[in-house]
Amino acid sequence: MSDTSDGVVKCVDSTSTGLLPGDAADRDEWCYSGKRDSDGYCKGKLANDNCTTDYQCDVGLYCNQTALKCLSAGSEGDSCLYSQTCKSYLTCYNSVCTAYGSLAIGTIVGGSGTAKLCSTRYMNSATRACEHGPTLASAMYQNTSTYMCNYTYGTKTLQDYPRCGYVANGSLLCPPMEGDLESYWAAMVNFTKLKPDCHVKHQYGFCAHAKKLGCYQYTLAVHALYQMDASTYIMVQNVPSCVMNWASTDYWYPKCESSSSTTVKIGLAAMSLMVLLLIL
Question: Where are the domains of the chain?
Fold first, then answer.
């Protein structure tokens, strides 16, 4: 069967869990629950219904493993056991539902916290402090594999080898580092502040329901997530037009209207699906 929940017709393994509540589906059987609402979105069990897994519960709910009931996921500041006990646009940090990118530079990320809590999305692995990450200090495109890519990190200079991609002229690429991608992370954080109404399994709040917040904002966030994955970033920089048309135009996605009524093209969608799987 196929799934069009993200605007793209794609195959869905009939032996998998199926589409989550909040995802768009053309048929009831494509949904994990086997049911859709009147708008064509998969729906799950309601609050206080019996459950055994989060997949069964509707948008904004999780399956409490003590009560075996679908209960409301926590809002920012609420207590939590793990990230799926919080709304999809939040993460569980030190037992509290916490917004992504909410920790300022210099803040020590304690416990099981990750760099995604930092406003810069970079955490010093030694001190566990939120910092500005390394930035590219040399030309992005190189013509020889013996050339080393230089990066600036505070007062230090770091080096790495250039990488290959689908590059038309045979040049190599010095990939961007965390410090170069801060603006993309800011776009992601701004999207989560819109509080997308998604199933708790959808990290950052990516789902069909999220597009109701505005296709333009959704597009920016998908683009940002794509750009922050270094492996896919490398593959589509300075590439032949046939590759770029496949990866970064509306080849995969239809046009949508932004909040300002200007038409924007949703690109990078097929790659974003892969990136989501890598990050989750």
Answer: 135-173
Q: Which carries the bigger pLDDT value, residue 160 or residue 45? A: 45
- The rounded distance, in Å, linking the Cα atoms of 226 and 271 is 7
Q: Report which DSSP code applies to 84.
A: G
CA angle 31, 272, 84 (to 5 degrees): 55
Q: What is the mean pLDDT of residues 56-62?
A: 95
| CA 112/CA 92 separation, integer angstroms | 9
> 270 in helix, strand or coil?
helix
HSE at residue 221, side-chain half, CA atoms within 13 A, is 24
Kindly state the tokens that stand for 235: 């593959």
Beta bridge partners, 42, equal: 36
The mean-pLDDT minimum among 168-177, 221-230, 250-259, 269-278 falls in 269-278
Question: CA nearest 141: which of 105, 107, 179, 167?
Answer: 167
Round to whole Å and give the CA distance between 280 and 275: 9
- Nearest-angstrom CA–CA distance, 272 and 7: 13
Half-sphere exposure of 234 (CA within 13 A, CB side): 16
* Contact in structure between 94 and 102 (CB atoms under 8 Å): no
List residues bridging with 257 in a β-sheet: 263
CB atoms closer than 10 angstroms to residue 189: 20
* Between residues 195 and 267, the one the model is more confident about: 195
pTM of the model: 0.73
Measured from the Cβ of residue 143, the count of other Cβ atoms closer than 10 Å reads: 12
What does DSSP assign to residue 159? E
Average pLDDT, the chain: 77
